């Protein structure tokens, strides 16, 4: 009589489990390798990238040069201003639009969301010229305000769709309770609904921040003076017609990822809940 016990339904064999873990390990290695390689090159000095396979000569000269002899800190501050401004304004506009479509029935409320969806389909390259003309007419070229508004035009359509789906999951009885307590529609939205929508707000805030933090095309075209350069524009000064400073580029790339990683870790506990809840209803 065999002493082996039958596996429970859904339980993987040892071979299948080993194959799965091996595949996951390889996928993780493929994902992490480019980041580790950039960090490795950044620690090899100004010309260490020419011999990336040598494991000697590590130093932080690229980082000290970036921080002490370039305008990296100015570019960094400009990027913080633009990214934070685009995040705050974009999330507020998206939240109010998503809540209005979720709770209120007004003429055009369905076409509004479809308009958001259609706008989201246009590639950034198509939008550069019309946005440039609009910002020029409003005298907002080469300004933080113009770039913030531009980034909001990119992030708000997606964020409004996401938050509309999240607001649909919040019981409408909460709004009725707010009206019974004498709150205005905006008071109900601000005091009752937004605290319950923290996961959805975290997702949209993270998306808005990343969109503004790493964007290149709009910043390159709309910011002309060096004191207003963001990181994406400033890093292009390391690449010339005759030579590219890859050591400085990699060091700057590592420093740029730190704020994005910090925002991710602050928002990560809300990301899964916000993404899944936002996709349950259309």
From TrEMBL:
Coiled coil ranges (UniProt) are none
Give the protein's recorded name. ABC transporter permease subunit
Where would one find the signal peptide in this protein? none
Q: ABC transmembrane type-1 domain: which residues?
A: 76-267
Family, per entry: Belongs to the binding-protein-dependent transport system permease family. MalFG subfamily.
* Annotated membrane topology: Multi-pass membrane protein
Provide the alphabetized UniProt keywords. Answer: Cell membrane, Membrane, Sugar transport, Transmembrane, Transmembrane helix, Transport
Q: Which InterPro entries match?
A: BP-dep_ABC_trans_perm, MetI-like, MetI-like_sf
Keyword Membrane belongs to the record: yes
Per UniProt, subcellular location reads as:
Cell membrane
Q: Where are the transmembrane segments?
A: 20-43, 80-100, 112-132, 144-163, 244-267
Q: What is its main location?
A: membrane
Origin organism of this chain? Streptomyces blastmyceticus
Concerning CDD domains, the annotation shows: TM_PBP2 (cd06261)
């Amino acid at each position: 009589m065999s002493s082996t016990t039958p596996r429970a339904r859904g339980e993987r064999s040892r071979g299948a489990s080993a194959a799965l873990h091996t595949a996951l390990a390889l996928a993780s290695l493929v994902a992490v390798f480019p980041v580790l390689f950039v960090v490795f090159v950044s620690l090899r000095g100004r010309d260490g990238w020419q011999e990336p396979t040598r494991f000697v000569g590590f130093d932080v000269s690229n980082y000290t040069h970036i921080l002490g002899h370039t305008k990296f800190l100015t570019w960094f501050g400009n990027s913080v201003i633009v990214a934070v401004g685009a995040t705050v304004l974009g999330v507020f506009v998206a939240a109010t639009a998503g809540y209005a479509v979720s709770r209120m029935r007004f003429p055009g409320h369905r076409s509004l969301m479809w308009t958001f969806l259609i706008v989201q389909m246009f590639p950034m390259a198509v939008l550069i010229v019309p946005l440039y003309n609009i910002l020029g007419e409003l005298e907002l070229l080469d300004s933080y305000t113009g770039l913030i508004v531009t980034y909001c035009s990119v992030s708000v359509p997606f964020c409004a769709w996401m938050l509309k789906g999240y607001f649909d999951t919040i019981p409408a009885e909460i709004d009725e309770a707010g009206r019974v307590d004498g709150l205005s529609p905006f008071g109900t939205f601000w005091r009752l609904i937004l605290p319950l929508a923290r996961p959805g707000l975290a997702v949209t805030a993270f998306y808005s921040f990343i969109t503004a933090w790493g964007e290149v095309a709009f910043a390159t075209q709309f910011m002309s003076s060096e004191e207003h350069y963001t990181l994406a524009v400033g890093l292009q000064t390391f690449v010339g017609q005759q030579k590219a400073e890859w050591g400085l580029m990699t060091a700057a790339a590592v420093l740029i990822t730190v704020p994005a990683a910090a925002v991710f870790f602050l928002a990560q506990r809300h990301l899964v809940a916000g993404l899944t809840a936002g996709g349950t209803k259309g």
